[in-house]
Specification:
Layout (H helix, E strand, L loop, with lengths): L4 H6 L12 H12 L14 H11 L13 H10 L16 H18 L1
């Protein structure tokens, strides 16, 4: 107690179990989050944290990450938050169009502008 109450509080044992998710399992989860959910057989374009947690619970142990067998959505959020990965957010959508669709698009935009003038 010579160093103060705050230091003493920080050194007290905390209730609950120590985290058991290995760094390798976290890396596997982050890598999975960077893939498309469609690539893993889901109809979803993007991962949700709930879907990612369920997939990790089901597939993680078979991939050698048994510590993910009881993974919950909140833990997925924490792991992805530490890496600043947001699989459910898209910043932009890029679509490759053929030359004809570009011409049609320009014509329709031009006709809309003319009709508003």
């Amino acid at each position: 107690m010579a160093e103060g109450a705050l230091v003493a509080l920080d050194e007290r044992p905390r209730p609950g179990k120590e985290p058991v998710i290995t760094p390798e399992a976290k890396a596997w989860l982050v890598s999975l989050a960077c893939d498309k959910a469609k690539d893993h057989g889901y109809p979803h374009e993007l991962w949700t944290t709930r879907l990612l947690a369920r997939h990790a619970r089901e597939q993680g142990p078979a991939a050698g990450h048994g510590c993910l067998a009881n993974l919950v959505q909140g833990t997925v959020c924490k792991i992805l938050g530490q890496e600043e990965i947001r699989p459910h957010k898209v910043r932009y959508y890029l679509e490759k169009r053929d030359a004809e669709s570009n011409r049609r698009w320009r014509r329709s935009c031009a006709s809309i502008v003319k009709s508003k003038s």
